[in-house]
Amino acid sequence: MTQIKGIHHVSAITANAAKNLHFYTEILGMRLVKKTVNQDSVSMYHLFYADERGRPGTDFTFFEIPNAGQTYRGSGSISRTGLRVASDQAVDYWYKRLSSYNVNVSQPETVYGRCQLAFEDFEGQRIQLISDQTNSGDPGGIPWSESPVPQEFGITGLGPVRLTVKQIAKTAELLTETLGFVKTGSYEENGRTVEVFSCGNGGAGAEIHLEPSPQEQTEKPGRGSVHHVALRVEDEQSLRHWIDVIDKRGFSHSGFVERYYFKSLYFRDPNGILFELATDGPGFETDESFDELGKNLALPPFLEPRRKEIENNLAPLSFS
């Protein structure tokens, strides 16, 4: 019951919600399953892209910060987000598709026994598509049938998340000694050894990859950077167990946070990485039907009395 199950979601920063919406729905073919606001700063959009219904482990989310500056890459960063697809054939499809849209994409290659390709979105967000053809562990989600991408090639969820840190041993200790991850392998990339840590049932959807930073400076985040990575826990009871664990280990943390669609805890590791633990439920159909997901501005009950004020402070956002 108290086991960390895998990656829950990844939250990043965009300076342009309209272009972001176009890229992730029209080019990547993900479904916008929730159009809401940052609950801690309600003047900014918070957009959730996922599989057909936003299953845990499929959400790539973005905060819109219109004045966000350039990201200056460095250590202490969530430096790459993995997105899973069903097969090696799907990776080949994506190389051709992304190239046709003039996306900055690399040739497919095999790394750690998996076919994959790296690319960046229009703001330099670093992403890696990873084939599940040889994957074990929990299956991915189900791509939306109304996506512009054929369902058999669609993105099924989040894959490994890469952290680039100066002091790998300290983050590795957090993962193994506190969160229950196990080191399951390593591979070489650009002359550096990347260590692989797994939790839950393992596989691409339950991996953190640790890369030693080639840079001394800490990353200065901006548009195209990742804000935090969230890990899956079963329910509120399990989350409260982890709050107690994190507290006893001496980490400064947020305490219990009610996010309405899930419940959360936030804390930073010794390298400055912001982690969240998030419950699998209740999910995005709490306030919208399956067919209506993402079509309207959704607000949790505690923000509903401020709807008019919030809507007046947001630029209209709709599908092209």
TrEMBL record:
InterPro entries associated with the record: Extradiol_RC_dioxygenase (IPR052537), Glyas_Bleomycin-R_OHBP_Dase (IPR029068), Glyas_Fos-R_dOase_dom (IPR004360), VOC_core (IPR037523)
Domain of life: Bacteria
CDD domains: PcpA_C_like
Transmembrane segments: none
Pfam families with a match to the protein in the record: Glyoxalase
Domain VOC residue range list: 6-132, 157-280
PROSITE patterns: VOC
PANTHER family listed in its UniProt record: RING-CLEAVING DIOXYGENASE MHQA-RELATED (PTHR36110:SF4), RING-CLEAVING DIOXYGENASE MHQE-RELATED (PTHR36110)
Name recorded for this polypeptide: Glyoxalase family protein
Annotated organism of origin: Salisediminibacterium halotolerans
